[in-house]
Amino acid sequence: TAINFLERLCLTWMFFFMMCVAERTYKQRFLFAKLFSHITSARKARKYEIPHFRLKKVENIKIWLSLRSYLKRRGPQRSMDVVVSSIFLLALSIAFICCAQVLKGHKTFLSAAYNWEFLIWEAALLLFLLRLASLGSETNKKYSNISILLTEQINLYLKMEKKPNKKEQLSLVNNVLKLSTKLLKELDSPFRLYGLTMNPLIYNITRVVILSAVSGVVSDLLGFNIRV
């Protein structure tokens, strides 16, 4: 019993340590995204003591897109995706087991000690997943914020009225901004859940298996069929 307890304690510590590392990485990504979104604002750039430039030249737009691509790839990518996917799969497996136990006999579900352990694990994993999903979603919003490009387009139109002699040059920059806006919209991954990069297999398993299990549990508890 003592050896079993120590093994569980060590495995639990290792797993939650990896989740804490993943959360720290997501916090760093959010900080980079936050500072990146302030580059084109003079007031915010002065406040956070970061470089500032406007997207009024083609060279500046190229630098802005290159910096965005570099910051998104900065830090561990695959290892963090593996950790998050493992957390998600474990939470999914525990949820499926709990749903199966409830369907088997919901009146005696809480009488077993291992079911309480499953519920504690599920609650802890869901808290971490919600935290990571929140950070990932906010990071995506910062990087996918096309209002910056739209604001720069408005500024270019105003400059065209003030400086008609530079209309051709400003029109070229405006066209590049439009293409950049379309590019940012196309770069969003189809297998993304609140900012977390999802494997297509995990995405389909989530959509088919867990929703079917939840549908069966809700139908069993309420007494009539509900299809989720």
Count of beta strands: 2
- Write down the oligomeric state: single chain
Nearest-angstrom radius of gyration?
Answer: 24 Å
Major beta sheet, strand line-up = 1-2
User: Any idea what the shape is?
Assistant: elongated
Calculate the terminal CA-CA distance, rounded to whole Å: 42 Å
Mean pLDDT: 79
Plain-language structure description:
The chain is 78% helix and 2% strand. With 228 residues, the protein is mostly helical. The chain has one domain. A two-stranded antiparallel ribbon has the order 1-2. The protein is elongated.
Q: Nutshell version of this structure?
A:
Keywords: Membrane, Transmembrane, Transmembrane helix. Helices cover 78% and strands 2% of the residues.
Write the layout of secondary structure elements.
Layout (H helix, E strand, L loop, with lengths): L1 H36 L4 H7 L9 H16 L4 H28 L7 H31 L3 H16 L4 H20 L5 E2 L2 E2 L2 H23 L6
Antiparallel strand pairs: 1-2
Helix pairs in contact: 1-3, 1-4, 1-5, 4-5, 4-8, 6-7
Protein name: PHTF1 factor
InterPro entries: PHTF1/2
Keywords: Membrane, Transmembrane, Transmembrane helix
What descriptors fit this protein?
PHTF1/2; transmembrane helix; membrane; two-stranded antiparallel ribbon; transmembrane; 228 residues; mainly alpha
